[in-house]
Every structure is written in C-alpha cells, then in structure tokens.
Amino acid sequence: xxxxxxxxxxxxxxxxxxxxxxxxxxxxxxxxxxxxxxxxxxxxxxxxxxxxxxxxxxxxxxxxxxxxxxxxxxxxxxxxxxxxxxxxxxxxxxxxxxxxxxxxxxxxxxxxxxxxxxxxxxxxxxxxxxxxxxxxxxxxxxxxxxxxxxxxxxxxxxxxxxxxxxxxxxx
Length: 171
What we know:
With 171 residues, the chain is an alpha+beta fold. The chain has 3 helices and 9 strands. The longest helix has 16 residues, at 11-26. The two termini are 32 Å apart. 29% of the residues are buried.
C-alpha cells in the first residue's frame, strides 16, 4: 500500500479551495485538479510499504500541541513537463517541528523518508496550464490538532485517500 502522513485542513477549508479551483477552471485553467476530499498538507511521504502498523506506532510516539495554520501564497513545482500548482501556508515553527519530528520517528522505525526541504503546501492540481495568477487564493486558518496516516489507493480509476490511523494532539 502507498502511505503518507498529513494534516487535514478541515471540511470548510476544503470547500473554499474547491470553489477556488472551480473558479480557476471557469477562467481557463486546465489540468488534473485535486478533488476536495483529497486536499491535505503532507508531513511525510512514506511510499509503498506493507508496514502500516509500524508507521502508526511510529506516529504514536509523537507529542505535539494543537496549533493554527494560515493559508499563504500560490506556488508551483515544475518537473517532467507537468506543473504542480499548490497553496502554501504561512511560516509556522510548530508545523516545521512536527514535520521534522514525523520524519525522524518514521526513519527510526526503518522507513526511508526523503531528506529534501519541507515545503508545506496543499496540492491544487497537476499538469496545470493557464492558471490565472490574478485570482487571489482564499484565505483560511486551520487548527492542526491531529496527524493522519493515509493510504492512497485507486477506486474505479479515481485516487482515494483512506485514513488508517489518527494521532490527536495533546491537550
């Protein structure tokens, strides 16, 4: 199974982003856009593994207090001729620490987590063309009070994310 660890931005924020993507499409944006239910902020990508229980146990070792994320600017990753458009979040030391702690906990449990710089974002679309930069992204805040271990799978050709384990922040 293909696994990753993320923060859920919440249903209200997913709806705001879905409306923003719809607006972009009405203004001519083309590409493969993220379905609202799949919008998330990745803390660590695990990849293909049959060790979901070990990943969940690694996450259970994390200790973090709830914190608030604030939406930032639109950004892109380019590569292989496919531009990825994403919405960043404002600098947040608590988020950066949680991402580093998550990667470290997974590495200690034997997972090969990439050591590239952490760029916190929510992917809006892949292979995107004609993105209208003059349309400002929605502003939002999201309470980060849980970390979710997700499985990425395909159901009838559609990518679906299934929560396997949730770790709540300490009170």
